[in-house]
Amino acid sequence: xxxxxxxxxxxxxxxxxxxxxxxxxxxxxxxxxxxxxxxxxxxxxxxxxxxxxxxxxxxxxxxxxxxxxxxxxxxxxxxxxxxxxxxxxxxxxxxxxxxxxxxxxxxxxxxxxxxxxxxxxxxxxxxxxxxxxxxxxxxxxxxxxxxxxxxxxxxxxxxxxxxxxxxxxxxxxxxxxxxxxxxxxxxxxxxxxxxxxxxxxxxxxxxxxxxxxxxxxxxxxxxxxxxxxxxxxxxxxxxxxxxxxxxxxxxxxxxxxxxxxxxxxxxxxxxxxxxxxxxxxxxxxxxxxxxxxxxxxxxxxxxxxxxxxxxxxxxxxxxxxxxxxxxxxxxxxxxxxxxxxxxxxxxxxxxxxxxxxxxxxxxxxxxxxxxxxxxxxxxxxxxxxxxxxxxxxxxxxxxxxxxxxxxxxxxxxxxxxxxxxxxxxxx
Amino acid sequence: xxxxxxxxxxxxxxxxxxxxxxxxxxxxxxxxxxxxxxxxxxxxxxxxxxxxxxxxxxxxxxxxxxxxxxxxxxxxxxxxxxxxxxxxxxxxxxxxxxxxxxxxxxxxxxxxxxxxxxxxxxxxxxxxxxxxxxxxxxxxxxxxxxxxxxxxxxxxxxxxxxxxxxxxxxxxxxxxxxxxxxxxxxxxxxxxxxxxxxxxxxxxxxxxxxxxxxxxxxxxxxxxxxxxxxxxxxxxxxxxxxxxxxxxxxxxxxxxxxxxxxxxxxxxxxxxxxxxxxxxxxxxxxxxxxxxxxxxxxxxxxxxxxxxxxxxxxxxxxxxxxxxxxxxxxxxxxxxxxxxxxxxxxxxxxxxxxxxxxxxxxxxxxxxxxxxxxxxxxxxxxxxxxxxxxxxxxxxxxxxxxxxxxxxxxxxxxxxxxxxxxxxxxx
Amino acid sequence: xxxxxxxxxxxxxxxxxxxxxxxxxxxxxxxxxxxxxxxxxxxxxxxxxxxxxxxxxxxxxxxxxxxxxxxxxxxxxxxxxxxxxxxxxxxxxxxxxxxxxxxxxxxxxxxxxxxxxxxxxxxxxxxxxxxxxxxxxxxxxxxxxxxxxxxxxxxxxxxxxxxxxxxxxxxxxxxxxxxxxxxxxxxxxxxxxxxxxxxxxxxxxxxxxxxxxxxxxxxxxxxxxxxxxxxxxxxxxxxxxxxxxxxxxxxxxxxxxxxxxxxxxxxxxxxxxxxxxxxxxxxxxxxxxxxxxxxxxxxxxxxxxxxxxxxxxxxxxxxxxxxxxxxxxxxxxxxxxxxxxxxxxxxxxxxxxxxxxxxxxxxxxxxxxxxxxxxxxxxxxxxxxxxxxxxxxxxxxxxxxxxxxxxxxxxxxxxxxxxxxxxxxxx
Lengths: 427, 427, 427
Fold this sequence. Notes:
The structure is a homotrimer. The first copy, chain A, is mostly beta strands. Helices cover 8% and strands 34% of the residues of chain A. The first copy, chain A, has five helices and 26 strands. In chain A, the strands form six sheets. In chain A, strands 3, 13, 14, 16, 18, 19 and 21 form a seven-stranded mixed sheet that branches. The interface between B and C is large, with 70 and 76 residues.
């Protein structure tokens, strides 16, 4: 799913178009791979440098590097992208290397990195390495630590990845707009000793949010609270990959929040601890047992636990609007009231809208309403027992006894042993 | 205040109406007590099973069980209810066993429970046991772990209450709507040894929020941020019971959040620690001293402290809009500006509205404005020194030297000793 | 910048106007200094009482006291004020002693204080000492612990500052309106032993928010979520003072939140720990390393760290709308869509508004648009490398090797050593 474009075909094309880069400079720039699909790419083991156990970026991938004089060279291309939010909806976003979010940058504590950033956007940008300890001049704040990167330019950031942990990258130039358009990515710095804080499965994603009017493709960028597309790595349920584990695996999930509000992330069937932040490891003495961890904006949290209960476990934001897709907010109540006025409003939006009486909203999960183009149903997704009726920030954590270590193939739905399921009383 | 209906009069009536339950099955279903008032019911000691010190559910009650073959059998009935939010306002909600929230389920670590759930709603539902460690098939996620419970059906959940702590139950089917309508309740699992983490007073409530237009009865269910009725256990000040304590008592308050936003809960005159979450006990080494604890959505927090200061202490959410009742948001500023336009807008809503000049808003707390039907004043409640001018998520924690242990009668207002009160400077 | 008015000229004038205070009483009231500018006043060492190292209140000052019979007497005047939010915008607020927020009250653990509060507002008020442990009658809750302080009255609060730490004061009478108008201030209680938890630099501020329509001066006081002026100590970038430090200094920043939402405070180039709350000191075993700390409403947090990286480091709220000034929310997207309709809407607001094409929003940071009177640009501020393009809750933490201990003069922009700055690839 990841293709590699050499500098002549793509990055260099843009650069030459900008007329500002010499042939000698071009020869210095590493290739810029790009991703063509939103599929989850279990990353390969590192081809060189210190060994580490790679992370699984949900619906994402890790950026290859070129090792040159013991420096890992990466190449990010900031550009307009088309991102499938879930089957049936694509958003016109800004991202990096073909997708939003951009690829995960993985390296090892102590690595020296050189990150080339080519700007193919119509306006300037920068990259800020959120949470990293680095020299002032590499911090990526437009106006304060560097001039902005103009369209067509390629800039170079070079610093040491000094501390193991979970970090993010995002613009610090016109950043409200550029983050509202999807510009962000993950950085994972592995410890030098792979045995240190080792886990069996290591997942990562960033929470983001968009305001895409039903029937349109481009987010509104000035929204402060009324977002309608709540996503993990720019994907909404049922488009978010499940997290696959073997019974007994130790699990780490690295979660970042680049929306405009808190997200309480809730895992069913297990309790967990926060073991790290973008500030460092959390000492054992300071950890709390949790089933729901509330992430503030701009925070990263590593959660860890043992997958000790087989089954399919819901994993989601606990704000109920954030597990809905668009159209949730305008729909008026039609419980026990005259709903004709409401239905008329809806018909303006959806001509075939049917009055559903005063029976609540559950039927919407099962119905196939006529939707505007490029619009997900508000409540959607099917499980083994019928409609799940969710959307947005929702996926499933799947724990199986027979999942092979290292196997990320979706095992399908769980079949509980006899006598372990809720049942109708007449049986 | 709690009556007991046998299955013939009520639960069975609904079930027979559904035409789906055999006589034999009915005989298996325990009775379904229901609550007829929003009064706080200090719960009786457990009649059988292991002993424990029961919790006081603010404006709520604990569900009796039937012990059968060493299994505690409970019966929840999901149904439409009328809940008094505070004297002067009743909301048409959905809840369990006559009220919203439903009754608290109390048991002891290691107890095996069998919980019957009868659906008397007009749409399907399920019950998810939030925070509990249990088999996949008992997790209550519609579509994913079970088919939904259709109207008229009774389903059975059966599992072991494996860990002491504070939990919640709520639907995981059409859950945005069903929680916006009030469907939720508390679960308290006591430790096997009553001396473990014992306190003198143990209180519990869930925070919830509704969007009820002034003059109406039924919440709008698609609201994401602009709620106007901020409640604890579906009660608003001055309808929330005070918390009564004796000087020197060790206090625990278990608080859950099932609204759509964070609530910073602030206690006057004391500092406290979070000692438990729905994930488990917080180790002593990890606790912070606090006067305000911010609860994310879907989180439970047990706070503990010693009631070491006699008096009447405000206990409330610190978001000032959340200690107001409805009508707060549309009222325009009339400080130092031409307020005639504002007054005209208000008169459209409230014909008798008087222009109050440019003197601020405090007079609204004292005035008796003509309100729409079934609408609480925005600022209300009286204390010993005049209007308190609050609403919503506000109550009083009352600490008295002479309160008998175990006595929950409201002692009235506190009289401070001479020389311990603020005073006008001319005295 | 701070002038001292004796009681005859100012406080007494108001009091005599109220006709309620005897000559003998007036003689008891200490003078009421007031601040005439929003400049940061590095406070002088205490002239009497126990020694302590004073805090630097960002864009604020500390209130002098009169020592009388071993009691520290302070005098707060609640009054309407004009506060410069940043050069180019002044808001008509309510505050204390000439500014909003009011002056910081500093004292030492164990000090007995007597705080006179004169009400020169057009409506009643009280003062609640947020987080303090004190007698019920001094808690300042109108109706519950005292009658409200009527316009023209002076009331006296008297209690012991029993615990070292960071606290706030604000009204507990018509408090939604009065806090939305800017009434709040800081209290810092220093430990008796100045060596205890000593730091080299100690800063403090409160986060607040206003809803001031572009072109107007007075906040709307009923706003719940849609604020447009996000401030620290009622100042917005570029009006917020920088924080100045010497390389190697141990830094404490005391931050309070009296807005209506969470603020994730993010510091570049350093990680830090929360070492105290308004509930007390956080034990070392319980601390987390952080780069972003999410403050709930009504919370205070002391963060501490060593300034170990020279440079100019962004320090800001990570919600991107909160680092914008007004006008952010109504501006429609003009990326890849027909922007003529949007431009027409803007032209109604700003006649000279130019269509900026589909190139994003960065150009707005550089443009000099014609703005309504008394309105800050949405994105503003210049650094050494061009426009910073920020607003609201943003300032710079400046760390210099050659900053003298105790020197708070702004050292200007940082010049990085050669080879430590991001660079264009053609060089």
